[in-house]
Structure prediction request, 827 residues.
Amino acid sequence: MEVSESTSNLAEGKGEKTSESTDPRKNFNYPLVKYCDMLDEMKLEVVDLVVTALERHQGNYEGAAKSVKETMDKKYGNSWHSVVGEGFGFEITHEVKNLLYMFFGGNIGVLLWKAL
Amino acid sequence: MYQQRTAQPISETATSKKTFVDVNRDEDDDWLPKELQKPPNQCQLTEQELDEEFTRILNANNPLAPQNIARYNFKEKTFKCSPNVDHLVVHLDISGYLTFKNDVEEKPIKPVQDENNATETEEKATNTEGNSEENKNTETTTEQGTSTEGNPENAEQPPAPAPAPVPEQEQDDNNAANNSKNPFNFSERALQTFNNLSRETSTNTEPPPKNTFSDTVTQWAIFDEYVKDLAQKEKANKEKAKPAFGAKNKGDDHTFELPVENHVEDVYYRDPELKMSIRKIERMTNQNTHDEITQDFKYWDDVADEVKGLKNSNARLLPLWKFVYKKEKKKHVTALCWNPCLSDFFVVGYGSYNFSKQGPGLIACFTLKNPSYPEFVYNTNSGVMCLDFYEKTPSLIAVGMYDGTVAVYDLARKSELPLYKSSTKTGKHTDPVWEVKWQKDDLYEHPNFFSISSDGKIIQWTLLKNELKKMDIIILRSDKELSIKTEDPKKIETENEDENIRALIEKENNEDVAFDYASGSCFDFNLQDDNVFVVGTEEGNIFKCSTSYNKQYLMTYEGHQMAIYCTKYNKFHPRIFLSASADWTIKLWDHDYDKPIITFDLNSPVSSIEWSPYSSTIFAAVTNEGKVYIFELNEKKYEPVCEQQIVKKAKLTHIRFNKYEPILLVGDDKGNIYSLKLPPSLRKHSKEPRDEMQKLEKIILITSGRMPQNN
Prediction:
């Protein structure tokens, strides 16, 4: 199963903002794990995996989501789902110790979970 | 196989043989006449003819066999005449069971062998007869035939029975005979066992644990999250000048950990069923540890006490459980009250009588079943000074505190907070509340209680739906002119009332009226008349007041030199009350007379007294020395029947009788509560309450030497 979502870039006003001298988003180019109930070892690996996929498929969220999902399916068994996007809401049911919710690059939200 | 011969000689030989046989038989059977029987058409031959020799040749050729069989030869592809003609003809074929004697495979068993022998001998016998050459020939030919069997050229002939089955069958028989002892009844039996029914069982494995998670991803949420994270990291960096990466990871781990397991434990403790069973087990362990005391409480009675009686000996109280709330060891027991419904349940108020050492107070509810820990605990901001259970709803407790507030706690509520509480806004006492007492519900059936404080006010508090309504009942004044000194209270109402009120108004107009207040310390309501109550003051005066007159006293009793700690009406006699004072004395009064009837001197300040609930003549008192005194006026009028040291180096502050059990509760100023068992001699009482009253009345009349009044 594949869940992926991509939205077009948000407001155009962004460009103006970036031109300001102190743009805090310059420092946002690292992964920020918002919530994760995986084991530490797995978490490190998965975060790494997500970051690589996002960097490889820059601007192509669908591709990134697909690649993350497929890699996870191979590594940790079937039924992984992945959402990559700039704005979305969700309510999911996931297997415990198999959920990662993180942000990347200041504008991308990534949700990765294993369904039952 | 055919014998080639003429018909005649055969018949001849046949007949000749017959004659021989006949002769032989005749020889055996002697009794028969020896006579040759001859067929009538027998030819008569001469000797010569008889001696004549005939030569005959027997050959094994089949006269009917075809002489010119031609077969197609596939090899040469021509018809060919076959030279060999089969002369074998089988007329009869019976498979036998005879075997060769020297056959290696055969191990013929005895009976069979015997049979064989028998047949062989028979054959031999027939052979020895000599005159049937044909027989012999046929035998040999058959043997030859069987031996030459298997010859491929005998294709036309039906295959002769194979010799193989014969020995096989025989072998089977032999084996059977060898194995079973009885070859005749032998039979094989077989049984089919039941096949088990096939069954299907299946189980469901537990699904893996799952969780739901929801959130909304928005740009601003991501932005905020990053800002927060950066701020956190900066903070961490400031605290520890370490590289950001490691610190960040650590911080992350911390913030996103789920403290699930901690909550689970809490949930278990909140489970009411578990709570209940834990409470039960606690009580059981307590019962085990205090087993001796429980036995004493239930069964032990001082035998000596019964025998000697009260006049000769000092009755002894049996100490039972000791109740301590460990956290409150430094506080004084300032109030004690039994629950009016449950015989084992009481409430204790903790506070301090020391003016300079005031602190927060505590209300603890104990049961006799669990001396180690209270059932309920309520913390109060100010020291608790007094308590009273509401009789109609025994979960309600009225509480008076050192800071002048009164509150009502409900044990049935789960909240730690009071149900009602007076505040400066709604009105309260300005000095410590020394005593609270529930009274009968008012006309609208609102519960209400009275409180007395050092500020000289007695206030009635009514529990309305959502507030505590305050009503000043009386303001005590030390001004003696106000109190009516006449012995007839009726006079007040008629003649002096107006004057008094006028004087009062004048007084109030004076500025120094504020210093005129008398500070009340205790009060008790009359048994019969709900309006009448006696008030003890710190100055040593006792006033009889009525709720109907809020400015004047019905009577003033002067006798004590120091502060009054306790006033109590008798539980059976409506006019008799006791007062305990710091001047070491207890005085017994009739509320119609201003002089005490009896004065008891206990050599130490008396902090509390209590009439027994079942006898009109028994009362108990505790002193600052740590002694408990019990008086039985029926036995000794001026001396206590029991004087017992309960604690050393501590003051006893309160004493209470239990309504249902022979138990006294005593509290001291170190936070301990002692329970004492009354000896049987102090438990006697009459069946009728009226008898009790008369008993006391009699004693008082004798003592005071007055004439009885009509009651």
About this structure: The longest helix of chain A spans residues 40-56. Residues 14 and 20 of chain A are 10 Å apart (CA to CA). Confidence is low (pLDDT under 50) at residues 1-20 of chain A.
